[in-house]
Amino acid sequence: MGARVGMARRTVDNFLDLVRRSGLVERDQLERVLLHLKKEADRKPITDPDYVALRLVEAGLLSRWQCEKLLEGRHKGFFLGKYKLLDHLGTGGMSSVYLAEHLLMQRRVAIKVLPRARLEDSSYLARFHREAQAAAALDHRNIVRAYDVDNDGDVHYLVMEYVEGRDLLALVKEDGPLDYPVAADYIRQAAEGIAHAHQAGLIHRDIKPANLLVDRTGVVKLLDLGLARFTGEDLASLTVANDENVLGTADYLAPEQALDSHGVDARADIYSLGCAFYYLLTGHPPFPTGTLPQRLMMHQRDPPPSIYDDRPDAPEDLVEICLQMMAKKPDDRPQSASEVAELLAGWLAAHGRAFDSGSPSGGSSGKLAAAAAVARRQSDSAEGSGKLRAGRPGSGSAPQHPGPKAGSDLRRHPGYPLGGARPVSPTASDTATGAERQTVEGPAKSPQVPAFGGDVDLIAEPAVETRSDEQEEAPKLD
Q1: Is the pTM of this model over 0.90?
Q2: Distance from chain centroid for Cα 180
Q3: Residue of 167, 206, 269, 332 marked active site
Q4: DSSP 8-class letter at 300
Q5: Geometric angle at alpha carbon 258, from 291 and 427, rounded to 5°
Q6: For residue 151, which phi and psi values (nearest 5 degrees)?
Q7: Contact 69/79 with Cβ under 8 angstroms?
């Protein structure tokens, strides 16, 4: 079941005692497995608790993560309110995320847990509740749904839809840049979800590949509304209360958002989505090197490196859409996420690519209107000034491109996670360079994850980047 650093080796009896005390397995179910093990032991004694743990996993009574914690000597912390924790999916800037199952309904969900250390600052709890409020205001197939927000003593948590698949950051890292129609469809779907959020008065402010999940059927879902702001919200908001002047992720941050996170409008999300599109096409963010301040400055003043450096055969009309989304000036970008969805739907239709426009918010199902939107935007960009252009260096008028190879099927692209993908966390790494999560949250200092020690609860503290070396101890067991 994996190495257990610093833990004394436990006997089979020790392990089974912890299993019973944990309450994870019904007594009669455990006894049935033990009966089979006893028959095996008649032939050869069983002395390895790892083997017993594996048999309990094979019987479907425990998850691997639960066994790992039990083998480390844990028997508390597996339950949170009405939910049983099955796995630790990830840790991010403000929370840890767990896979869990409702005790009665047996529905699997993702649970985002606010660490106890954050409760010392009431503004973080307020922000956590604001995320729940923002998620509750949205109901769209391209947005991860929120089911409930609650607390179990001093543990506050948000219950969300569980998406089995991969985020776009991990997908590209593992599979490489995506085929053009697949990338276009993923960003189109993301734009549909973002448009729904904007229509509800929400600006996400942290659009990035790690916050876009793709399920096993190829449906993209937007997540992590922890930095979302309601349109018209008082500037004396949660972020200001935390003395955080800049919010977002450096590799995908709009120029105006780096200057003032609180005054941005929906077009900042369009820029960030354009940077995510660039990542899907090239395999790296627009400005992957340099310090965090240097990258923020590049977003302010430098044109992104040519997509053709990585993809010489990229369709110019598709590159044009990506670069329009990444225009430095908000007025030079598509003015709404719905327009982005229409542009990409038009591109897919013009290149003979079918797509599923089953989003309840609609907005891009009319292919003729979408194709007209593409033509209109391309015409406008040809006449405008100061906009990023898609033409290859040294080329004149843009030649016609046949697009992706004939016969390509979106649902057969290797980017679609059709089998065996590990569940992902809403808070994963978000740069192609392998650097940890580069979420800019002002000067506030945050605790790091301590080692998993004998007196530490299973609800672990989150790891966040910080310029401080300070650490806080994890909470003790009751």
Answers
A1: no
A2: 22
A3: 206
A4: H
A5: 70
A6: -140, 150
A7: no
Q: Rounded to an integer, what distance in angstroms lies between the CA atom of residue 142 and that of residue 359?
A: 7
Q: Are 195 and 337 in contact (CB under 8 A)?
A: yes
**Is 224 a known active-site residue?**
no
Domains of the chain, by residue range, sit at 12-71, 168-232+252-412
Output the six-digit token pair for 234: 């008082």
Are 341 and 171 within 8 A, CB to CB?
no
Task: Scan for tokens 């197939």, then name that residue.
Answer: 141
In what helix (H) or strand (E) does residue 296 lie, and over which residues does it extend?
helix 292-301
CA-CA distance, 228 to 442, in Å (whole number)? 16
Rounded to a whole number of angstroms, the CA Rg of the chain reads 24
Helix (H, G, I), strand (E, B), or coil: what is residue 319? helix
- Helical (H) or strand (E) element with 274: helix 266-282
Task: Kindly state the DSSP code that residue 285 receives in the 8-state scheme.
Answer: -
Residue type, 305: P
Three-class secondary structure of residue 185 per DSSP? helix
- CA gap 222, 419 in Å, rounded: 21
pLDDT at 242 over 60: no
Strand-pair partners of 56: none
* Structure confidence by residue, pLDDT tens digits, 86-124: 999 888 667 789 999 999 998 999 998 887 777 777 777
* Of the candidates 273, 275, 225, 227, the residue with the CA atom closest to the CA atom of residue 251: 275
CA-nearest of 37, 55, 45 to 1 is 55
Q: Looking at the domain 168-232+252-412, which fold is it? A: Transferase(Phosphotransferase); domain 1 (1.10.510)
Which regions of 346-467 does DSSP assign to beta strands (E)? 439-441
Please provide the average confidence, as pLDDT, over all residues in the chain. 73
Asked if 30 contacts 19 with a C-beta cutoff of 8 angstroms, the reply is yes
The one-character DSSP state at 392 is P
pLDDT per residue over 141-180, tens digit each?
Answer: 999 998 988 888 888 898 999 998 999 999 999 999 999 9
